[in-house]
Amino acid sequence: MVWIPEGSFEMGSDHHYPEEAPAHRVAVGGFWIDRTPVTNAQFQKFVKATGYVTLAERPADPADYPGALPELLAPASIVFVPPPGPIGTGDPYRWWQYLPGACWRHPEGPGSSIRMREHHPVVHVAHGDAAAYAAWAGKQLPSEAEWERAARGGREAGEFAWGDELHPGGRPMANTFQGDFPHHNSLLDGWERTSPVGAFPANGYGLLDMIGNVWEWTDDWYGGHAATGDQPEGCCRQQASIDPGSQHGNQPRKVVKGGSFLCAPSYCRRYRPAARMAQGIDTSTCHMGFRCIVRG
């Protein structure tokens, strides 16, 4: 783990997606944070020690999804399946598929495996799965502010964690999507899906893969990015995170950070420390992982 000293920083951004605003000053205590996202090898050790079964490996409770078709209650997770040709970017359901059998052991569904990917980030972990691992390891999931402070690597200026250019000197600094999203990835960075942790340069704190590769869970309920601290508390904040009009329906949502191998300039410019997204706690995907902290 890497020590992040206490201090303050400007969190959020006024220049990108509206949910990142307003930029505001935040003070954070010191904490230790995993140098890399939790890997398949690390998660496998946890599963072997505890017998833990992830959400994607369990059938869904019909009571939680009244009226759902029986086949949609089978153990499954969400996988990116690139379309054969250009389709535009207006309908995400054209490249996301809910695949029975997809889970952390089988990232692309039945027939795939994590063999030779032991040092890639574990994926298909829901928030509860990440929290269970953290508790077993004697750690916690970071708050959004802790995660963002760590991702900035000591920098405040600059659009990206490393400066003002996405690919300085033509060099990819993180695992993102290059080419024509969603159908053609040019593989400029060398990776179609996840990459092994450490394939790209560390940030100013020595942390790897804070940007790109996989989205990372935080432990904060999703809500307005307000500077005043006037957000609801406890269960009220959980309730406030629900947006029935979103793809997550009536499920509470947590903040995820960092972007992933599917973030592309033409579609999702969330490969920046300030970027944030809401993710339902009942959802796991092929581009969602996590890392842990220990507070000082």
Mind explaining what this structure looks like?
The chain is of the alpha+beta class. It has 4 helices and 13 strands. The strands form 5 sheets. Strands 11-10-9-12 form a 4-stranded mixed sheet. A 3-stranded antiparallel sheet has the order 1-4-13, covered by helices on one side. Strands 2-3 form a two-stranded antiparallel sheet. β7 and β8 (184-185) form a beta hairpin. The longest helix has 11 residues, at 40-50. The radius of gyration is 18 Å and the shape is globular. The two termini are 12 Å apart. The mean pLDDT is 94.
Features:
3-stranded antiparallel beta sheet; 17% strand; 13 strands; 296 residues; alpha+beta
Describe what is shown at a glance.
With 296 residues, this protein is of the alpha+beta class.
Q: How many strands, which pairing sense, and closed or not: the largest β-sheet?
A: 4 strands, mixed
What ranges have pLDDT less than 50 throughout 5 or more consecutive residues?
A: none
Mean pLDDT figure: 94
> What's the end-to-end separation, in Å?
12 Å
Layout: helices, strands, pairs:
Elements: E1 2-4, E2 7-11, E3 24-28, E4 31-33, H1 40-50, E5 76-80, E6 96-100, H2 127-136, H3 144-152, E7 179-180, E8 184-185, E9 215-221, H4 234-240, E10 253-257, E11 277-280, E12 288-289, E13 293-295
Parallel strand pairs: 9-12
Antiparallel strand pairs: 1-4, 2-3, 4-13, 5-6, 7-8, 9-10, 10-11
